[in-house]
UniProtKB/TrEMBL annotation:
GO terms, molecular function: oxidoreductase activity
Source superkingdom: Bacteria
Organism: Amycolatopsis rifamycinica
PANTHER family in alphabetical order: PHOSPHATIDYLINOSITOL-GLYCAN BIOSYNTHESIS CLASS F PROTEIN, PHOSPHATIDYLINOSITOL-GLYCAN BIOSYNTHESIS CLASS F PROTEIN-RELATED
Keywords, sorted A to Z: Oxidoreductase
Protein's recorded name: Short-chain dehydrogenase
Taxonomic lineage from the root: Bacteria, Bacillati, Actinomycetota, Actinomycetes, Pseudonocardiales
Keyword Oxidoreductase: yes
Family: Belongs to the short-chain dehydrogenases/reductases (SDR) family.
Pfam family, one: adh_short
Keyword Oxidoreductase: yes
Record Gene3D superfamilies: NAD(P)-binding Rossmann-like Domain
C-alpha cells in the first residue's frame, strides 16, 4: 500500500525539532507534524524567515536560531532547546547546502561537510540526552541519492584543501549522513528507546539546487516534469521515517519510483560504501575530534 500523509499518526504531546524548516522539505515536514498535533520547533539560521514560515503553519510552532556553520551557534541553540524542552521526541536533521563554491564554515570546515554532517553531528550529540528517556523517540537524518555520485569519505583531505569538487564534496557530506545514522543506531541499540533513521527526498523541487552549475540548473528546469516532484511529496520519506510505527532503527527511506527520483516512500538501500563499518567508526571518531562533542552513548557524554 502506498504510504501517504494520511497515514501519519497523531503526534499530540510530542516535540519535534526540525533544522532548516523555514522552506522546502523542512517546512513541509514541520507543517504536517504540527497539523497532526506535534509541538514543532523550526531551527533555522534566519529567524525572520522562520517566523514568516511559522505564521503559515497551523499548530504549536516556535522558532529557534541555529546556524549549522558555527559550532558556537549550535551550542547556543542546543542550550536554549534543552532549557525549553525537557523532552524531545523527534530530531529531524533536514537542513543542508548543495554544490556550493569552495567555502568554509566559521570553524574552518569545508562548507558542505561542515554544514550537512558536522553541524548535525554536533547538534545531535548535544541534544541526545533529551531523547534517550523518551519511548519511541527518533533521530532522522536527511541524506540524498547524491551519496552515490563520485562519493567517498576523503579521510586524507576531509576539508578539500588540496583540490575541490563541489559535486564530490556534496556526495561526501551525504555519505557521511548515512554513516553517521548507522553508527549512531548501533550505539543506541543498547538503550532500547531512541532509534536513528535516514531518509532522502529523491529529486524534489526546492531551493537546494540553487548553487548547482548552470548546466545542471538548466537540465533540471527542462526535465522537471519527468524528473522532479514537489516538496510536499519529497517530504514524505522523512515523515515516514519519523512517524511510521513499523520503522526500525538503521533503516533508510526514499521514493519508490524509477531510480528513487520520485514516488511514494518505501524502504530503500544505500550504497555499499555507506555500510563500511570501519569507515563509519573512523568518521565518528574524526567528527568527535573536529566538533569537540561526545555522545551520551557508547560510554561518553556530550561535551558542555
Amino acid at each position: 500500500m502506498n504510504w501517504t500523509e494520511q497515514q501519519i499518526p497523531r503526534q499530540d504531546g510530542r516535540v519535534a525539532v526540525i533544522t532548516g524548516a523555514n522552506t522546502g522539505l523542512g517546512f513541509e515536514t514541520a507543517r504536517r507534524l504540527a497539523e497532526r498535533g506535534a509541538t514543532v520547533v523550526l531551527a533555522v539560521r534566519d529567524t525572520g524567515k522562520g517566523r514568516l514560515a511559522a505564521a503559515r503553519i497551523d499548530g504549536d510552532v516556535s522558532v529557534r536560531e541555529l546556524d549549522l556553520t558555527s559550532l558556537e551557534s549550535i551550542r547556543a541553540a542546543a542550550a536554549a532547546l534543552r532549557a525549553a524542552h525537557p523532552r524531545i521526541d523527534l530530531l529531524i536533521n533536514n537542513a543542508g547546502v548543495m554544490y556550493t563554491p569552495k567555502q568554509t564554515t566559521r570553524d574552518g570546515f569545508e562548507l558542505q561537510f561542515g554544514t550537512n554532517h558536522l553541524g548535525h553531528f554536533a547538534l545531535t550529540g548535544l541534544l541526545l540526552d533529551r531523547l534517550l528517556p523518551v519511548p519511541g523517540s527518533r533521530v532522522v537524518t536527511v541524506s540524498s541519492t547524491g551519496h552515490r555520485i563520485n562519493a567517498a569519505i576523503h579521510f586524507d583531505d576531509l576539508q578539500w584543501e588540496r583540490s575541490y569538487s563541489r559535486i564530490a564534496a556534496y556526495g561526501q557530506s551525504k555519505l557521511a549522513n548515512l554513516m553517521f545514522t548507522y553508527e549512531l543506531q548501533r550505539r543506541l541499540a543498547a538503550h532500547g528507546t531512541t532509534v536513528a533513521v535516514a531518509a532522502h527526498p529523491g529529486i524534489s523541487d526546492t531551493e537546494l539546487a540553487r548553487n548547482s552549475p548552470a548546466v545542471v540548473r538548466r537540465l533540471l528546469t527542462w526535465l522537471a516534469p519527468v524528473l522532479t516532484q514537489p516538496a510536499t511529496a519529497g517530504a514524505l520519506p522523512t515523515l515516514r521515517a519519523a512517524t511510521d510505527p513499523s520503522v526500525l532503527g538503521g533503516q533508510y527511506y526514499g521514493p519508490s519510483g524509477l531510480a528513487e527520483r520520485r514516488g511514494y516512500p518505501k524502504l530503500v538501500a544505500s550504497s555499499p560504501d555507506s555500510y563500511d563499518l570501519t569507515a563509519q567508526q573512523r568518521l565518528w571518531a574524526v567528527s568527535e575530534d573536529l566538533t569537540g562533542v561526545r555522545f551520551p552513548v557508547g560510554g561518553a557524554t556530550a561535551a558542555a
